[in-house]
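Handout, page 2. Input:
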Amino acid sequence: MIRYCYRRILLAVPVMIGISLLAFILGLLSPGDPAEFALNQDGLDAPTDAQIAAMREELGLNRPIYVQYFGWFVQVLHGNFGSSYITGKDILHELLLRLPVTVELALLALAIAAVVGIALGTLCAVYKNSWLDDAVQFLTNILLAVPGFWLALLMILLFSETLRLLPTSGSESLRYFIMICTPNTGHPVLGVF
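Output:
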């Protein structure tokens, strides 16, 4: 068992490197120039080419892409996530600022997934091969085929915009988390079957 755990941890390393590389590449492919964004945040509406070149030099954006990636990767391994090109704030601080709400959301989604998944799994086991079992399995297959983001958009449209029952965003009370958690729990709940 311990050997299995070690193997799984070792397999996670290339996956994490691949994810970091993909995120880095997506950041490079995103529209706009970070140097220009940084200058716009400093109050310059139309920075000159010389100002943009100086900012690219300051941010290290004129180095080859592989040098930028490895420099960034080494800094991340040392716990330095850098600072935002746009706001100039420390990224680790920004992540830690949002961590409590993220953990609250994840725990609530996990709780909903566990309660609904166990309840539906128990019902399907008790009423095996009945219309209820067939209906739950049919619904499960349909919802597994629907991407979570699409389900979330449909739920926002129905429950927030059309029926005006739930808010679209916020974190003041449990009511605000229902719309966020429900589409995110669909796939874990359905994975029980």
